[in-house]
Amino acid sequence: MNKFDLAIIGGGPVGLFATQFAQLHNLNTITFEALNRFGGQVEWLFPNKEIKDIPSYESLSGKDLIKKLKTPLTNTLQPNYRVETIKKEDGYFFINDEYQAKTILITTGLGAFHPKTLPIKVTKTEEKFINYFMTDPTNYKNQKVAVLGGGDTALDWALQLAPMVNSLTLIHRRPQFRGLESSLNQLKCLSNVKISTPYLPKGLQIKDNLLELTLNKIGSNEQSKQSFDNIFVAYGFKSDNRILRNWGLELSGRGIQVDRTMATNIPGIYAIGDSVEYEGRVPMIALGFGEAQIAITNIIAKLFPDKKITLHSTSI
Questions:
Q1: For the whole model, what pTM was predicted?
Q2: Residue ranges of the FAD/NAD(P)-binding domain (predicted)?
C-alpha cells in the first residue's frame, strides 16, 4: 500500500494549487479527483470564460488557468477516483483501504456536482441533441442552437456560442435574468441571437434530423415549436457534500468548520476552498489559494516540527 505525507481530496483549481504548493515544500502528495479530468467546475462548466479575479492576471480563460496549475506538477494525480471511506490507524489515514496518508486536505468545493436535467421525458435518441456542458463552442459552428436558462452560465455559454453559430435562441422562464446585466446587454446587440421569454420546454421530438422543441408560454395556453441542431441546458447544478458528515467532520452551514489554521475537528484533516465556511468568507478561487498556503504551512509544522519552513517569495 502506497504511503504519502499528504492526500488532497478534490482536483479543482484550489486542489491543484495546493498540490503545487505541497510539491514546492517537498511533501510526498497524492491528489484525488472523482471526475475523469482535473479542473473541477472551472474545467467542466466554464473553460472558455475569461476569469478576471486571479492575482497577477488581468484576464485568463478557465482552461488556461487549469493548464497553468497542472503544468508544473510532478506529484501523483489520481483522476476518476472517488474517496468513500477514511479511517485512522497507527498514525495514518487509510483511504478506501487502498492508500495511506499522514494528513488529509479536503478541497472538494461544494462537493460532487450533477446538472439539473430537463423536467420532461427524454428518449435516448433525443439525448444526443441535449448538452449539459459546453467545453468547445467551435464544435457547433454554423448550427442552429438554443440555450435554456437565465443565470450566468446560460449567458456565458450564449456569448461563447454566438460567434460560431448561425442562430442562437436564449430561452428563459422569466422575463428577468439572474445573470449579469452586462452579459445580457451584449447578447441583445447580436443580430443572430433571439431572446424568448417567458417560456418553458414542454415536449421534444426528432424531426428531419433536428430536435423539435415545444415551448409553452408561462401564464397562457400559447405554444410554439422550434427546431435546433443542439440545445444547451443551463438550469444549474446539484451539489452533494453528505459524505463529509459520514467521515465525522463537523459542518457549519453548508461547509466544513475549520479553525485559523484550516484544521477541522479531526486532528490531521484540513479543509480549504469552497468546502469550508466561516464568518466573512467569500467564494473566490484566489482566497482558496491563500487558504492552501495556510493549511500546508501548518501541515508541514505538524509533520516535521524540526524543519525550517521557507516561505519563498515572502521571505528575505
A1: 0.77
A2: 4-280
